[in-house]
Amino acid sequence: MTELTLARATDLIRLAIDKAAADYGKPICVAVCDASGALLAFARAEGSPLRSIAISQGKAYSAARMQANTDAVKAKLAADGVEIAWFCDEKLTALPGGAVLKTAGGAIAGAVGISGLASDQDQAIANALAATFVNGAV
Question: What does the angle CA 24 – CA 43 – CA 22 come to, to the nearest 5 degrees?
Answer without folding.
Answer: 20
